[in-house]
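ligand=nicotinamide-adenine-dinucleotide
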Amino acid sequence: MLTNKVVVVTGGAGLLGRRFCSAVAEQGGIAVVADADGAGATRIAEQLASQYQGRAEAATLDITDKESIARLITKLQKQYGRMDAVVNSAYPRNRNYGRKLEDVTYEDFCENVGLHAGGYFLVAQQFGLLFRKQGGGNVVNIASIYGTMVPRFDIYKGTSMTMPVEYAAIKAAIVHLTRYFAQYFKADGIRVNCISPGGILDKQDEKFLREYKSQCGEKGMLDPQDVTGSLLFLLSDASKYMTGQNLIVDDGFSL
Ligand SMILES: NC(=O)c1ccc[n+]([C@@H]2O[C@H](COP(=O)([O-])OP(=O)(O)OC[C@H]3O[C@@H](n4cnc5c(N)ncnc54)[C@H](O)[C@@H]3O)[C@@H](O)[C@H]2O)c1
């Protein structure tokens, strides 16, 4: 589906990002595993390169640093002459992220929204400008169901987890920025879409998993590979005339 397409995945060493990179390489593309964790990115890229005839490489990237993004773009331009897509899948947060509403300070709220929504903005801005010069490109933002639905706080009762208030602001911003960017770059051959996954399995509390599943179709929380089909669709020509859209992949949880 993606023969020789160069696809940069920010957060490429993460839970979802590494599966996205694997799916890109498997479909004949070249996955750039771009992550603030350079060692993690190298590990993932080496695994994928040996599995898929060299179709992966690592890059150290900080999505909140314009110079870091510019350095990556310059390097890849020299190397490949062209980039086809960027997937915003990094998950920056500060050490106080994830507290319950009562304990979130103004400073932490602003910092976490700035790192995550601001970082996604910066990546989309810098790649959007590059894609405009190139005459086309594709941006996929990873949002979340919590960008469009309010949390069901009951399912967190009795666990140490919550659905952070910053996350609601961040993901709603990303869903809407997707439409803003799609409109802004519509005449430049650039498509901008987002995917809103439901919860992803990562050794969560059993009670929480049961409660979550009771709101779903058959599976409940998903595995990372359950989201890759939507990503490949958005990256490929199968979705050629789609832009500004939000694909919700959540086994019906948000209904
Ligand atoms: N895991 C879930 O349940 C879930 C559900 C819905 C949506 N999402 C979204 O999917 C995306 C990926 O989430 P994940 O679960 O894979 O997260 P993760 O924490 O497993 O991975 C995130 C990656 O981002 C990297 N990163 C952090 N700060 C960075 C920065 N400044 N620059 C570059 N890289 C940076 C980390 O090193 C890490 O490898 C996020 O947007 C998240 O909100 C996750």
